[in-house]
């Protein structure tokens, strides 16, 4: 195990990152499934020195030879499919795959040396538990909320002293709502009247993903 950690340490000292490759068709973005785009921003491209990617992006032996370390972003099913389809090829790649620790139970013993499990957690924000914290989350579409806005608002029961955190993905500027989304415009207009006497904090996607503790909130939508 110490040799594996030494390999990672040496790699971090002189990383070979896919981000450094320009104008190369190594990743199959033209096979990017609709299900991945539906899960944005969690499926968006991002880079760190240990080369995070989805397994469908690994097009063949050439990309394996490019980097000795790859971090896998896949879920259980696509990871198991990868193992079944490539179990005879690992000896030829000389690649160390980093996977979530819970995936280790899926790896056959004779392939264990090609994988190392990792686990990480985000420290919870130190905050005093308070009552009166409300959280409103909504995609401003009829598919998500239904076409009856008033019925949505019936779910929002507020006391005068309640504080509200508002997260409306894709609506980053509430003063300039998507011009082609009449439903969103109507929803925000009516919501602003409902919340006019309350303390409201509007957060964006970055704020949401970097908040680790919502235990003191009541989810309204």
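Q: What amino acid sequence fits the structure above?
A:
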């Amino acid at each position: 195990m110490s040799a594996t950690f030494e390999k990672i340490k040496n790699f971090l000292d002189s990383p070979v990152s896919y981000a450094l490759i320009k104008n190369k068709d190594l990743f199959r973005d033209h096979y990017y499934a609709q299900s991945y785009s539906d899960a944005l921003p969690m499926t968006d491209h991002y880079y760190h020195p240990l080369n995070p990617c989805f397994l469908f992006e690994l097009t063949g032996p050439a990309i394996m030879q490019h980097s000795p370390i790859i971090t896998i972003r896949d879920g259980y099913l696509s990871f198991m499919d990868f193992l079944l389809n490539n179990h005879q090829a690992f000896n030829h790649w000389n690649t160390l795959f980093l996977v979530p620790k819970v995936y280790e139970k899926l790896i056959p013993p004779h392939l264990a040396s090609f994988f190392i499990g990792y686990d990480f957690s985000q420290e919870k924000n130190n905050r005093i538990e308070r009552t009166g914290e409300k959280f409103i989350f909504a995609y401003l579409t009829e598919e998500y909320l239904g076409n009856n806005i008033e019925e949505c608002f019936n779910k929002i029961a507020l006391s005068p002293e309640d504080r509200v955190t508002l997260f409306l993905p894709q609506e980053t500027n509430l003063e300039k709502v998507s011009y082609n989304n009449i439903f969103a415009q109507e929803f925000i207009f009516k919501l602003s009247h409902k919340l006019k006497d309350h303390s409201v904090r509007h957060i964006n996607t970055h704020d949401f993903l970097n908040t680790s503790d919502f235990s003191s909130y009541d989810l309204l939508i």
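Q: And what stands out in the fold?
A: Strands lie at 52-53, 69-72, 96-100, 115-118, 133-137, 163-167, 199-203, 217-219.
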